[in-house]
Amino acid sequence: QVQLVESGGGSVQAGGSLRLSCAASGLTISSYYMGWFRQAPGKEREGVAVIYPYGGSTYQFDSVKGRFTISRDNAKNMLFLIMNSLKPEDSAMYYCAAAVTTRGYIWRHTEYQYWGQGTQVTVSS
Fold first, then answer.
1. DSSP secondary structure letters along the chain
2. What is the pLDDT along the chain (125 residues), one digit of tens a residue?
């Protein structure tokens, strides 16, 4: 069965950095669209960054461009989100997700079939 397990969340001060990890089993991440999504209390779940299968093209949502980087280690079958220059508005539960196909809708969380349990990120000012 497919399992995605996030780790690396925590509490940091504004301007700090965190690296989130997603350990995958039951699927090969290089064959899937892999995304990081986040959800803050009272808000919709939103896409953060996506890496495409095979070629590994990466995309970041406008709010995190220049600050967050998505990457993967195919040998370890792990996905990462490197977050720099964190802001209080980045505080959220962060989820790792996988999709066989997104039909081009890479920022729609409903396109992703597999999800981790989430890891909490809290950024204080």
1. --EEEEE--EEEETT--EEEEEEEESS-GGGSEEEEEEE-TTS--EEEEEE-STT--EEE-GGGTTTEEEEEETTTTEEEEEE-S--GGG-EEEEEEEES--TT-TT-GGG--EE---EEEEEE-
2. 999 999 999 999 999 999 999 999 999 999 999 999 999 999 999 999 999 999 999 999 999 999 999 999 999 999 999 999 999 999 999 999 999 999 999 999 999 999 999 999 999 99
User: CA 118, CA 92: separation in Å to the nearest integer?
Assistant: 10
Rounded CA gap, 46 and 36, in Å? 9
Q: Hey, what are 113's tokens?
A: 């079939």
